[in-house]
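All the exercises in this workshop are built on plain-text protein records. A learned vocabulary of local backbone shapes supplies the integers on the structure line. Once this layout is familiar, the rest of the handout is easier to follow. An example says more than a description, so a record of this kind follows:
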Amino acid sequence: MNAGTQHLSSDERHSSRAYFDVQESLAVPSDAPGHIRWWLITGAMVVLLWAGYFAGTSALLDLGNAGPKSNLYLPRAIVDLAGILISFAMIYALYGLRDSNLVKRALLAAAMALAATVAQSLINTKVFNVFFPGSSPAFGVTNFAIDFAWRIWIWISTAGTILAMSYAVDIQERERRILGLQALAHSAQLRALRFQLNPHFLFNALNSIAGLISAKRIKEAETMTENLSDFLRLTLALDPQGLITLDEELQLQSLYFEIEMKRFPDRLVVSVDVEPDVRDALVPSLITQPLIENSVKYAIARSNSPVELAISARRLGDQLELIVADRGGDAEVSASKGAHLGLRNVTERISAHYGERGSLRAGPSAAGGFENRITVPLELRL
């Protein structure tokens, strides 16, 4: 290829790099565990709140009374147990409104706090009249107002706690759903990008077979058709969003080289230089396919002299560097939509799998020809 006439601004085989982050979850998680956890945590907090209230009021009243105190524990416990039951009714009511907005839930919590205060004040008066008939003050507006003012603070605290807990778990559930939907979208994107390669490659391969048939090279066309069948069978069986070893990727591409060598027996020269310690490195399946196709289409097919298609890979610290390059030949560079699609597909697939940790850089090489340099995190199959 003539590197001097190659301009990245006009040629479709241009430098390309793009990134975006992904989530690894592949399904919308169930909300059931979050609801159960919310019930357990909220219920435990309510019980602790009322246990603390019972202990605090008992200590306060006992310190202010010199008479017998043990006979007061049971009625206090009954009143506070009623408070726990009312609190659980409040939890149930707010749980039923978990799909409502915060304002509506806050108004309901405030109304329930007032109603609960009234209910427990009435229960308190009734219980102490039962346990201490004649000695407990009769029910009246003044006594009720004093008792109401005494209890309203704990019910505001209880309602606020339940409301905060219910809203917090709803936010967590929504975040889980968003992450799950993002993961599903990411999975669909990976599949779409991977399947995008099949018609693109098939079109080129069928054109090659048609060229052999037109040139009356029937035996070679038959062999190429068999190789194409083997290649498609293996590639269609791959997981579109999975990773394969670099060694498996090279074996797949060797089938493609056999196909193209039937078409360009005197022009296609393949060289592979892969360090042994990275052959088990994981890469997206067929990640080199569009790059190799571009070299065949823009360098080899348009050249009258041999072109070397070189694949190399090495370890760079904690990263894998994979290079697909073509060198030699006398082809002139011209723009084509196909190269755009290939480079963009590889860039987007790298970004989808690795985010900012992976990249593709493509452009003319200093030694002449065109070079595609993939850099991804080094992950070895154990």
In short: Strands lie at 243-245, 268-274, 282-284, 307-316, 319-328, 359-364, 370-377. DSSP finds eight helices and seven strands in the chain. The chain has two domains: 3-24+217-377, 32-180. The longest strand covers residues 307-316.
